[in-house]
Here is the input.
Amino acid sequence: MKIRFIKAKSILTRSKFGGYTLNPYIGCLHGCVYCYNQHFIKKIGREEKWGNFLEIKLNAPEVLEKEITEKEKEEVFFSTITDPYNPLEKQYQITRECLKILAKYQWPVSILTKSDLVLKDLDIFKKFYSFIKIGFTITTLNKRSQMILEPGASSIEKRIEALKKLKKAGLSTYAFIGPILPYFTNLKQIFGILKNKVDRIWFDTLNTKKENWQGLEKALKLHFPKILSEYKKIFFENRRKYENQLKEEIEFLGKYFKIPVKITF
Ligand code: SF4
Here is the structure.
């Protein structure tokens, strides 16, 4: 694993979805096989295998403190090219220090993670009152599959337990089910387990643009060869039909479990 320390020139990046994104790190030690960043980091000149390196923006809090007084107040999303709670956050606390500044200025924040390390910042989350949402990504409830697909992330049990604690603490919580992975993502079970733990569930399907698909294809070939041919049929032959059925299922389950849903595909 390679660790580098870098200096950020700026830290609040305009998002095409509105608001800003904030990446305290570049790279992610969770190493999800389907992570779309595997392709993106090549574009920005990083050659290491995804999951094997992390760049730490030591000066991120300092840069944020300056930018926050110059920019318009809008929601800040953590993160797009890292997980803000990847394991080294425990040691370097860059996410925590940035959150302290955002809380001080009462900027709205949304966090998405796959790590229960997020619980260490509960004291800061409470300072945002209603201006913070904390979400967990869940793709599968199956232990073996999760360890293959998301090897460095917290176990599903830990993620669910963390959501429960965050909700109990009075915070706004959500789950992101994305990418939905046929044969791994059991929507009915996921709705059931998330009941009373989240305020909303977001859904997205798999982006199979050439480079985005390569990591998952490799993992399927190695660990689930029988499923690989089914994926090819679903995503490259019957995608529209599959997505329409999925939408119906999600809408039905959302009403059945009384959890608001947001479908982004
Ligand atoms: S946690 Fe997110 S950023 Fe990290 S490897 Fe997984 S998908 Fe990529």
About this structure: Residues 239-257 form the longest helix (19 residues). The mean pLDDT is 96. The pocket of iron/sulfur cluster is lined by residues 28, 30-32, 35, 37, 82-83, 114, 150, 153 (CB under 6 Å).
